[in-house]
Structure formats: C-alpha cells, structure tokens
Write a structure and sequence with these properties.
Layout (H helix, E strand, L loop, with lengths): L17 H4 L7 H5 L2 H16 L3 E5 L6 E2 L1 E9 L5 E10 L20 H14 L21 E3 L13 E5 L6
Parallel strand pairs: 2-5
Antiparallel strand pairs: 1-6, 3-4, 5-6
Length: 174
C-alpha cells in the first residue's frame, strides 16, 4: 500500500501565532467598540445594512411589538489557524415575536448535500469549470411582508433621532 508519506505528500504544519490564540470574542458592543478590528467589523456590517436600506426609522407606537437586537461576533480563521478577518453581525431577537400575530410562516432556503454532489458530478462529467463565490449580505435581496419593528442597534443609535425605532424592510435580521 502506498501512503501519502511514502509518496512524499505531507500536510503542512499549522503554526498559530500566540497573539491570535489570546483574542476572545467581545461580550458586549461597548467592549467591541474599544477594539479597532471589532469596531471596523461592526462599522462594515452597519454600513451594509444602511446601504441596502434594511430599515427606516419611524416613531414608536404602543401598538408595535418592538424586538431587541444583538451583535454576534465571530473570528474567521484561515487554514493555518491565524485570523483571516473579524466578523460582526447584527441580528434581531425574533424569538420575542408571537406566531400567528407577528408572523405567519418561516422560510430558510437550504441545499441538501446530495444536490451539491449531483451538481459536482454533472460538472465533472461535462468538463465544466467549478468556481466558488461568496456574496456579502446576499440575504438582503428579499422583502418582508409583515411589519417588524426593532430597537436601534446598540452603539449606532442615530443621535438626531434617538427616540425612533427601526421598521425592518428586509428579512436579513429576523
């Protein structure tokens, strides 16, 4: 039997930088805003949400079921274990909504592994080129049918309109 080692094929050793191992995800937006890399990640996410017109600011009403939001932080690492990028995502706390009152159905598009295998098999048999594509904020293309109201994101409250809430127009955060 011929092994990879006998054939001269070796897996490269992953070297971690000691400074990368000690980096922890922030526990609050205030903590994240003090770290330049996490602040940049939050700024990028916030700018993408504004650019895609994810919400409009509207006056509060007692009839609104206003949900909160939360910043979720993740470190993206490359194959060697060092930090590739810092990622921050703003998500609405949709679990505060009531089924049948605030929403009527949920939908999350997913792809089965068998479908991916069939597509790859077809591509190989036809000699097609295979490429990977990652689209930032691809989920911002849909429209919401229901009215969803959310507090303004912590750390990014509009100083000229702090008394307003966000009426979500895109399903990115629900």
């Amino acid at each position: 039997m011929t092994t990879r080692a006998k054939s001269g094929i070796f897996k490269p050793k992953a070297f971690f930088h000691a400074k990368d191992l000690n980096i922890a995800k922030p526990s609050s937006p205030q903590e994240a805003l003090t770290h330049p890399s996490w602040k940049q990640a939050m700024d990028d996410e916030y700018k993408a949400l504004l650019l895609n017109k994810t919400w409009t600011l509207v006056p509060y009403s007692s009839t609104y079921n206003i949900v909160g939001n939360k910043w979720v932080y993740k470190l993206k690492r490359n194959s060697y274990g060092s930090i590739h990028r810092y990622k921050a995502r703003l998500v609405a706390k949709g679990f505060h909504q009531t089924p049948g009152v605030d929403y009527f159905e949920t939908f999350s598009p997913v792809v089965k592994t068998s479908t991916i295998r069939i597509i790859l098999t077809l591509a190989i048999s036809k000699g097609w080129n295979i490429r990977q594509l990652d689209i930032n904020s691809a989920f911002l293309n849909g429209k919401l049918q229901e009215s969803v109201y959310m507090e303004q994101p912590e750390g990014y409250i509009d100083a000229s309109k702090p008394h307003l809430c966000a009426n979500l127009t895109k399903p990115s955060m629900v």
